[in-house]
């Protein structure tokens, strides 16, 4: 019996350790591509959910306040609140803001005097996700009754061509209805 206790206290042999390392390597080789796809899919879904939510909030605020609310891309979201303005480009990947367009009703945030109220701020997108826009790409504007002047469409695309099948499309009708669906045309 004492001999059996000594044997069990020895630990692993080098062969047992090598077998475990090989099994772990095989499992990682099989799982790694699926893990990357899951991460990219979650990032696309998260950005899509943020956009749908911010569009719904902008429409709701327009109706609640009885004023135009605009969603536009921005590159200044990390500056002081009174300095945040719409971007000159239609690059929504840098982030966006929603604000009450109450002073000049020009779809641009006024920061002089009394700055227009910001409703939402979205930071830039992860590097693995990009946007394509159709319709009113420089801004989305909801009138006081919750409708828009024109429909708009956004496609949230993975930046890696191998994952374009994970794209999601967000459409906003002229009546202000926001919908999200799987699929979309990526570059």
Overall structural class, as computed from helix and strand content, comes to alpha+beta
Major sheet, described briefly?
A: 4 strands, antiparallel
Radius of gyration: 25 Å
User: Helix amount, in percent?
Assistant: 25-40%
**Which percent range describes the beta-strand content?**
15-25%
Ends distance:
71 Å
* Main sheet strand line-up: 3-2-1-5
List the secondary-structure elements in sequence, H or E: HHEEEEEEEE
Mass-distribution shape: elongated
Number of DSSP-assigned strands:
8
What is the number of helical segments per DSSP (H or I, 4+ residues)? 2
Q: What's the overall average pLDDT, rounded?
A: 86
Poorly predicted segments? none
Please describe what this structure looks like.
It is a single chain. By secondary structure, the protein is of the alpha+beta class. Helices cover 32% and strands 22% of the residues. It is built from 2 helices and 8 strands; from the N terminus they run ααββββββββ. The strands form 2 sheets. A 4-stranded antiparallel β-sheet has the order 3-2-1-5, covered by helices on one side. A 4-stranded antiparallel β-sheet has the order 4-6-7-8, with helices on one face. β7 and β8 form a beta hairpin. It is elongated. The termini are far apart. The model has no long low-confidence stretch (mean pLDDT 86).
């Amino acid at each position: 019996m004492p001999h059996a206790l000594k044997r069990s206290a020895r630990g692993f042999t080098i062969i047992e350790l090598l077998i475990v390392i090989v099994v772990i390597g095989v499992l990682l080789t099989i799982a790694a591509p699926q893990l990357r796809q899951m991460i990219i899919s979650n990032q696309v879904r998260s950005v899509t959910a943020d956009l749908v939510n911010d569009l719904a909030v902008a429409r709701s605020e327009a109706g609640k306040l009885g004023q135009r609310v605009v969603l536009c891309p921005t590159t200044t979201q990390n500056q002081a609140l009174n300095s945040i303005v719409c971007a000159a480009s239609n690059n929504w990947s840098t982030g966006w803001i929603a604000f009450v367009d109450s002073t000049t009703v020009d779809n641009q945030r006024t920061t002089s005097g009394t700055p227009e109220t910001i409703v939402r701020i979205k930071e830039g997108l992860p590097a693995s996700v990009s946007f394509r826009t159709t319709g009113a790409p420089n801004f989305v504007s909801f009138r006081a009754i919750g409708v828009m002047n024109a429909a708009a469409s956004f496609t949230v695309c993975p930046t890696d061509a191998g994952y374009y099948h994970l794209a999601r499309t967000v459409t906003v009708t002229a009546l202000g209805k926001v919908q999200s669906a799987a699929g979309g045309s990526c570059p």
